[in-house]
Amino acid sequence: MARDVVDADFIVIGKATAPVEPTAEVPTPRLDGPFLPRALLWLSKAAALVEARLQRLPDRHFANLVAASFVVVFLAVVLHVMRMSEHPEIAARPLDLVHVNLTPQDRNGMRVLLVNAIVENRSRARLAVPQLRADLLVDGQVVASTYIAPPAGELEGGQSRGLSARLQHPGGKTPELRLSFDDTGV
Length: 186
Fold this sequence. Notes:
By secondary structure, this protein is an alpha+beta fold. The chain has helices at about 40-55, 60-85, 90; strands spanning about 95-105, 110-120, 125-130, 130-140, 140-150, 155, 160-170, 175-180. It has a 3-stranded antiparallel beta sheet with strand order 1-2-7, with no helix packed on it. A 3-stranded antiparallel beta sheet has the order 5-4-8, with no helix packed on it. A hairpin with a 2-residue loop joins strand 4 and strand 5. The protein starts with about 35 loop residues before the first helix and ends in a 5-residue tail after the last strand. The model has no long low-confidence stretch (mean pLDDT about 80).
């Protein structure tokens, strides 16, 4: 004798007889109405057209398009970051004095000091070059101070200019030279 196995009992529920209260309907703005300007309407139609064309692409072509878009955006970001970012030290001090040299000489019976240096613009921007201040030090004490005119009024990014100036020897032993820009922002 075979028994019937019942997995589930289904009960049919009839329609609810309780009255349903009406809800207030919020009108949605239409895209072709006065809510949006014509340019936005045109843009939405163009986006719909592009979407329709993208949906017709085969899967392989769509995947290639997405990958190419990713590569283009990634390269654009990398190039932007490389072009715009500078090393923090360069951003803090874009102008630099390098190869500073002080040489004692005799000129027409007078002792003078020949100052040689190179002013470098380490940034990518065009910068004004301020006056240079030359302090002569003996045993850590300033014995003479003077200003030296810059080799150029402005330097293009990455450009450098050499300067040379003669200073009167203060006497005694050969002093040390401290050469700096007069402008505190440099």
